[in-house]
Amino acid sequence: MPEPPIRPADANEAESVHFIEQIIQDDLASGKHASIHTRFPPEPNGYLHIGHAKAICLSFGIAEKYDGQVNLRFDDTNPEKESQEYVDAIRRDVSWLGYQWNGGEYFTSDYFEQLHGFAVQLIEHGHAYVDHQSPEEIAAGKGTPTKAGEDSPFRNRPTEENLQLFSEMRAGLHPDGHCVLRAKIDMAHPNMHMRDPVIYRIKRAHHHRTGDDWCIYPMYDFAHGQSDSIEGITHSLCTLEFEVHRPLYDWFIRTLGIFPSRQIEFARLNLDHTVMSKRKLLRLVEEGVVEGWDDPRMPTISGLRRRGFTPESIRTFCERVGIAKRENVIDFSLLEWALREHLNRVAPRAMAVLDPIKLVILNYPEGQSEMLPSENNPEDPSAGTREMPFSKVLYIEREDFKEEANKKWFRLAPGKTVRLKSAYIVRYLDHIKGPNGQVEEVHVEYFPDSKSGSDTSGIKAKGTLHWVNVETAEEAEVRLYDRLFSDPAPDGHADRDFMDFLNPDSLQVRSRCMVEPSLALARPGVPHQFTRLGYFTLDEKRTKDTGHMVWNRAVTLKDGWKGQG
RNA sequence: UGCCCCAUGGUGUAAUGGCAGCACACCGGUUUUUGGUACCGUUUGUCUAGGUUCGAGUCCUAGUGGGGCAACCA
Which CATH architecture describes the domain A28-266? Predict the structure, then answer.
């Protein structure tokens, strides 16, 4: 009986890699490829979103890890939907994520001439024909998934006639839609994509790069694999919906006898409480539900950037999400975790009060003030400290005071004692209410010997409150965000429109917030942690437009309090 | 009534025929001048049925469930 193998005493924990990396390692080990070359091939017809970030991190990350190359290629074969605006936005988003396309930048439109040559080559070898059927006739002729298609009446045209017709198509002798070029494969093939796919159509549309040079454009299936091949892409990584296109991808490469790029598919990213398709995102923009593609509630890269996400956090998120072929829906909280994980280490702390009421320290001398040092980041002593002005009248958070509270309430209330962060311990005395019953001021006494850093009072305070000195406070607008949809799967209801599930509270604007004076020098793109409140970033656009500070909250701090007090 | 892909805790993802592990979430505890962080701990999983094997999450067969495929879109 064979003994079970003994595990090596000190085996290095083998690095576990996903199935795509496994293929790459095998190809490198077997010598199939001396080096690897990937590409990221967006169509410039919209803004990149977090799902694209996964694809970007995959293709760029693999090139980086295996010392290979990666191309950025704009798949621009449908001029009606594409534009330079999107090209620019895509470049900016990929760069912002921290990636360089070291293999170069390309456009499928750069290959139009070469692709045209491939088509001629196919015709010459009897592998393509010009079809004069209408789109409806072609669709009908394809059959259904369970029923074989029928040959087009034009399928057996002589090569010479096909050559002639195709050159007329290119020369503009035929009106739009009059005829198409089709690959001649198998109208009864079990894979619908192999039933003589259309590979060129006539379309008199102005192309954002080639202008009016062409009136025929190749279809995706005839452009993508060949473009990969032209660029020497070894591993062409794409999402699962292209799986059924792979036999066609391979067929063109084999039939044309060109460099065999290999397509490998992985499952696309889905996030709960949002939608990810360009069509649906576009609807949110067009119906004015959000401000634009870069609205901080959008799952777009530009939206996340404006919301206050960092490239590092998005890359971490993509690593955690993993790569597999299984359909998946990722918790939004994983994205939030990734941001907190990064920002907790690097974000400078500051104090801000979103819903201010006054705290008056009755026994603090009128007219006196002092500067108290406060750590910029407790996780990073090298970040140093800053001086916080402190005096008799401060702002504290309305929700940090309660007229009645039990033992679990660590904040201010009758009978309670709290520490003011980086300052003194104070004890409740009384409070004043306004005409409509709202608390306006809380009065406390402070203990002079409880000063932060030199506390000899011996008094213990369970809770610590953040505060801002009234005299020196800066006013700011703060925008708080929540999930755009209240339903975890807004587009998962067959009988309901996803717009029915919009979260009415996805945006909260707080207009008279008070922030510490040092924040007046803050710059956009540098996230801060507002003590006890979360991570905030200056909104560049809105701050510029309104002339006053506007802060976006990217995410709250994790809240471990159960709210039982 | 076709073809292709997939199935591991609540959510993701490992285990390459040999101890089902990790992260997020959840719950509990310790520390704490952020009810944060850090640290510790609890609970929870191999779709079903057969088969191969000393041994199956892994291989085979069938079933079930989910996803995809019929644009002159990508």
Answer: 3-Layer(aba) Sandwich (3.40)
